UniProtKB/TrEMBL annotation:
Pathway: Cofactor biosynthesis; NAD(+) biosynthesis; quinolinate from iminoaspartate: step 1/1. The keyword Iron applies. Iminosuccinate binds at H25, S42, Y113, I114, N115, S130, H199, P200, E201, T216. PANTHER family: QUINOLINATE SYNTHASE, CHLOROPLASTIC, QUINOLINATE SYNTHETASE A. This is Quinolinate synthase. It comes from Flavobacterium celericrescens. Binds 1 [4Fe-4S] cluster per subunit. The keyword Iron applies. NCBIfam families: nadA (TIGR00550), PRK09375.1-2 (NF006878). Catalyzes the condensation of iminoaspartate with dihydroxyacetone phosphate to form quinolinate. Its main location: cytoplasm. It is found in: Cytoplasm. Its cofactor is [4Fe-4S] cluster.
Amino acid sequence: METITDLKEKILALKKEKNAVILAHYYQEEAIQEIADFVGDSLELSRKASQVEADIIVFAGVYFMAETAKIVNPNKKVIIPDVNAGCSLADGCPPDEFKAFLEKYPNHTVVTYINCTAEVKTLTDIVCTSSNAKKVIASIPEDQPIVFAPDKNLGRYLIAETGRDMVLWEGSCIVHEAFSLEKLIDLFKKHPTATIIAHPESETHILKVAHYIGSTSGMLNHVKNSTNNTFIVATEAGILHQMQLDNPTKTLIPAPSKEDNTCACSECAFMKVNTLEKLYQCLQDESPEVHLDNGIIKKTLLPIQRMLALN
Ligand code: 13P
Ligand code: SF4
């Protein structure tokens, strides 16, 4: 029977033969993170994707991320292990509905969180990720009203942090909305010295009790640099793999979800449709491939480049 090690070796050989590079998000299963050439959060991955020299990019993440890699590399082949790796935020913002929504706010600057489709990005002035959202908002003149989409939770957090006039699209991440405040408070009572860290896609009541709020990489850095030993982590559970590797002696406790604790609610089912087997198969077949219309690529490049230029 083929072991994970056999499969990893086959992937490495194929990767070399085809001059491919594997980019993976921290929410991917451990075996994929281990075999990737680069693991990062959304911002790091888009930056890395714009610097790739290989002929093929295997994007182990969700579809909007693979689309972004294609937009910044229109002449390269971008493949994804499972084309069904969607995202509740991207799915919750259909381009035609977003277009109609924007017609109500003609003089607004449109900022979209990178978790949206390429078509929605064509309607955008500047893209942001959770790492640089505050910086992106700060780059817009103070008296300029803003439409922010699609994540209402990140949007509310940004309004509270920046005091800006922002109209929000009503989208959310099903994973980050799964955390229970009541259970989190109970857990904290059992670990009163713990630091609660949360991703800004979480609901406002969770963010209110968090000691630190940041993107995936922000949280990894925070735990690494902190002198504290115990952390309650309110984000997708995939982050715990790298966090524990970075901090072997620290105690990391996943934040509890509203449902019973066996439901794996804090795992993104979209991210987890990618598996090592599918990654091997997609590299072998060079498919499923991300295809984007040239017109869409042209229109989306500018709002993405504006974001990348800020960093
Ligand atoms: P970051 O990678 O920007 O932290 O975003 C998390 C996320 O939900 C990715 O889909
Ligand atoms: Fe989308 Fe949430 Fe999954 Fe990230 S964790 S890909 S925002 S559904």
